[in-house]
TrEMBL record:
Residues of the DNA methylase adenine-specific domain: 150-438
Keywords annotated in UniProt: Coiled coil, Methyltransferase, Restriction system, S-adenosyl-L-methionine, Transferase
GO MF annotations, alphabetized: DNA binding; N-methyltransferase activity; site-specific DNA-methyltransferase (adenine-specific) activity
Protein name per its UniProtKB record: site-specific DNA-methyltransferase (adenine-specific)
Coiled coil: 479-525
Transmembrane segments: none
UniProt catalytic activity: a 2'-deoxyadenosine in DNA + S-adenosyl-L-methionine = an N(6)-methyl-2'-deoxyadenosine in DNA + S-adenosyl-L-homocysteine + H(+)
Length: 611
């Protein structure tokens, strides 16, 4: 979502208005605020699904079947009773004197329609007062909440949590998983049908992304997937259920003490999962070793226990669990602290056993600034108990620390095309060249569509792209066209009357931004094909390497991608080092002499002034 920062700021200002003008404490008004965002986001998705359903009905020539709640679920939305729809609440007459009760009734109606939400949605909106509640409803009626395909509940929750209580936002290493990382996990584990578990499910982002993946590949997740979650913090578990309901999903989510994964397999799923996806809290300490060992699920062995009888770092407990939960063909994808890839002591022995199992599929290093409230790097681990025999003694390593899009100075992400490119490396490693070929076709089609943005020769060049050999020419032509449009924009704005300049500049800025976005897509196509051509895997220094078990043993069983992929070759800039250093030295001497002369002049001036 391009304007997520702006959206967060606007929503927070409304939420902060509640704190300032109501009698509620921060703890009391956090959930009601998120409940209103839930209502608004649910309504946005409902509208989208409703339009799709009605459009398909108008195209049908047969007998019209009544619209049912399942029709919305199939399209990733929740059916909302009329009295709970956001526009109904928003447009109640001004004479309505009990808006708080109406919102409470809306929550009750949604819970009745969706039994999994029973007791989850907030109430007591009468405590806010009608005027304040009406104002908040108006402010939350933000078109950005109509956008599809984002874990908006989790994202806004993380932002609000950081505002409500910064100390809580990072407690125990718990923080929101960025959409980029979640989507990358789905692209690699490829959920199609079966049982998925997230034993540290937070606000449910993994489930939402898995459903999006299934739907994009032609399936109905309501029919094909069963979701199980454990979340120790009950507050987060409620958000998970809300998030899933908004997306037309159902799941079995357990919270509280019985959901503490260190001590409980709450759903009795050990050895039964087709998919495990998670972002567990990193580097947790003080896990009671006796209780954890008694709870089982440690097929790799037991990691280090301190003198207090506690696991001093729970990273390998989590890795044990993820591996143990998989059935004989199951896949796991999870986020883990980067230190776990080469930690020593007993961890190394557990890692060696995991590598020797042949079930480590891929390791992907992620650079700084992907997390929303943290700047730390991490590694995505991928396990596959159903790996084909020819890959059992191999592991794919990808170091993507230099490959991302900077959203701002503190936030990076992978664009949709970058996610496709990273996924393409995995496809080629798996021998799935057909998927790579389909991606090249997508790039060609996208570039051809760009022809509508240009004219003349550039339009013809873009419209004629059909194969990877055309990508470089398209890039050069588009880049030259952008420079021409910039020059024309500058000339036209300068020649325009003063009152027209702002409007004209804005129009050109919008056009050029669209062209630059298009150029970025062509650049991504070239990034991929410059390395892998028409679709043949090759190790790329500094980016990716397929390592054998022997290679990994020689690295002391390290699974750190950087230890295997090496560093990219330094490009020769054509400058003679010694000659350039001589020039720099001469320049420094000249500047120093000028500085000395200037200081002498300043001193004389002070003396003449008697200072």
């Amino acid at each position: 979502m391009a304007d997520i920062k702006k959206l967060e700021k606007e929503l927070w200002e409304a939420a902060d208005n509640l704190r300032a003008n109501s009698k509620l404490t921060s703890q009391q008004y956090c959930m009601p605020v998120l409940g209103l965002i839930f209502l608004r986001y649910a309504w946005g998705r409902f509208k989208m699904a409703d339009a799709q359903i009605r459009e398909s009905r108008t195209q049908s020539t047969g007998r019209q079947i009544p619209i049912e709640a399942a029709d919305y679920t199939k399209r990733g939305a929740m059916f909302i009773p009329e009295e709970a729809r956001y526009d109904f609440l928003l447009n109640l007459p001004e004479s309505e004197k009990n808006l708080g009760k109406r919102v409470d009734d809306a929550m009750a109606a949604i819970e009745k329609q969706n039994p999994q939400l029973a007791g989850v949605l907030p109430r007591n909106y009468t405590d806010l007062g009608d005027d304040l509640l009406a104002e908040t409803l108006r402010i939350f009626n933000n078109p950005a909440l109509d956008e599809d395909g984002d874990d908006i509940i989790g994202r806004i929750y993380e932002y609000f949590l950081g505002k409500f209580a910064p100390a809580v936002a990072s407690d125990d290493g718990v923080f929101f998983t960025p959409k980029s990382l979640v989507r990358m996990i789905m692209n690699v584990i490829e959920p199609e049908r079966g049982v998925m578990l997230d034993p540290a499910c937070g606000s449910g982002g993994m489930f939402v992304s898995a459903s999006d993946y299934v739907r994009e590949h032609g399936g109905n997740p309501a029919d094909l997937m069963t979701y199980y979650g454990q979340e120790k913090v009950e507050y987060n578990a409620k958000l998970c259920l809300m998030n899933m309901a908004v997306h037309g999903m159902n799941g079995r989510i357990v919270s509280g003490d019985e959901a503490n994964t260190f001590y409980h397999d709450a759903h009795s799923l050990d050895g039964s999962c087709d998919y495990v996806a998670a972002n567990p809290p990193f580097n947790v300490d003080k896990v009671k070793s006796e209780d954890a060992i008694n709870a089982g699920r440690m097929p790799l062995g037991i990691s280090g226990i301190n003198k207090a009888g506690e696991f001093s770092n729970a990273n390998y407990l989590w890795i044990n669990y993820f591996y143990s939960y998989l059935n004989p063909t199951g896949r796991a994808g999870f986020v883990m602290a980067s230190s776990a890839t080469d930690s020593s002591g007993k961890d190394r022995a557990l890692r060696e056993k995991l590598v020797k199992s042949g079930h480590v599929d891929a390791m992907l290093y992620v650079g700084n600034n992907f997390f929303y409230t943290k700047s730390l790097p991490c590694t995505l681990w991928f396990l596959d108990k159903g790996k084909p025999q020819e890959l059992r003694d191999k592991v794919l390593f990808i170091d993507a620390q230099s490959y991302h899009t900077a959203i701002d100075t503190t936030h990076n992400e992978w664009s949709p095309w970058q996610l496709k490119n990273l996924s393409a490396i995995v496809w080629l490693y798996r021998g799935e060249a057909d998927k790579y070929a389909t991606l090249l076709d997508e790039y060609s089609a996208a570039i051809r569509e760009m022809a509508e943005l240009a004219d003349g020769d550039t339009k013809a060049v873009l419209a004629g792209v059909t194969m990877l050999d055309d990508f470089a020419g398209a890039r050069d032509s588009l880049a030259a066209y952008i420079e021409k449009r910039r020059a024309k924009a500058k000339a036209d704005v300068e020649a325009a009357k003063q009152r027209e300049r702002k409007r004209l500049r804005a129009a050109y800025d919008e056009e050029i931004a669209e062209l630059e976005d298009a150029l970025t897509v062509v650049d991504e196509a070239l990034w991929l094909t410059d390395r892998f051509g028409a679709g043949e895997y090759a190790d790329v220094p500094g980016l990716c390497k397929i390592a054998t078990l022997q290679d990994i043993e020689e690295k002391n069983w390290s699974l750190t991608p950087g230890a295997h992929v090496g560093v990219p070759p330094q490009e020769d800039d054509g400058v003679d080092f010694h000659e350039r250093m001589g020039e720099i030295h001469e320049e420094l001497l000249r500047l120093q002499a000028e500085s000395n002369d200037l200081m002498a002049t300043i001193s004389r001036n002070f003396e003449e002034l008697g200072l």
